[in-house]
Design a protein that fits this description.
Elements lengths: L14 H8 L3 H7 L2 H16 L3 H17 L3 H17 L3 H16 L7 H14 L3 H8 L8 H17 L2 H12 L7 H15 L4 H17 L3 H17 L3 H20 L11
Amino acid sequence: MIIDTLGKFRVVLCLLSLVMVTSCGGKVKIQETGLDAWNQAMDSGHDAVILRRYSVAETNYQEALRIAILRNDARRIGEAGYNLAVVELSGGYPDKALKQINQTEALLSIRSDHSMERELGLVKAAAFYRLGQDQSALKTALPFASARDPVGQHACLVAGLAAFRLGDMTSLEHVSKILAEVKRAPSDMLLADRMELLALQKLRTDAVDALHLAERVADLRRKYGDFRGMERALRLAASAADLAGQGAMAQSLKDQAEQSLKADKEGTPEAGVSEEL
């Protein structure tokens, strides 16, 4: 979440360097830099993220974080810090994102602020997953998994994906059931999450059904320009096709997955912001 997971993409960088800036004459800048500057930096960062100009977004969110630290404003530290971490994840640096989340949590902890614990935990879980640290991803995401809001729902997806790679079908089934508890009409993205977890469950028992589900997931991810999610769904569909004895289809799906991955790396502006998994 991941940008769009929380509504307006709260989009995290080297907090250590910012703390050092704070310690060097920061009080003068508190008087010079008000909330208008913070809002402007956050808005500029958001605009850059939409265009996938992640280095520009980093600069803006770093400035927003610097201002928040100078003001000793815990809430704004959390928001700017969260956004910087997501930018690192979006740019393909999950190790940096993880480091930034840890540093953001430390900055908030010394201010006794835990209001963004769930959001920060979600990004941490996603970073663990991208790093292949599936046990840590599952352990981090599972406590936040719930049907009540986008953070909890996306935590279900992260936990389910990690559980599948671990072969933990019990946890996968558990978070799938949680997503099924969402009472309102599901959005396309929530529907895609549900179907992806269901396809993972059915992969070994009903490859044909898993194939059809994964293809539907890929279509929904494509609709919203989520190329990374589409690539994941296409690879799942390819695995299902292989298991169903449809080798030619499996190869075609793998080729499509490569194209989706290429589109994600090229940062096509029309793609919007992909899920960060």
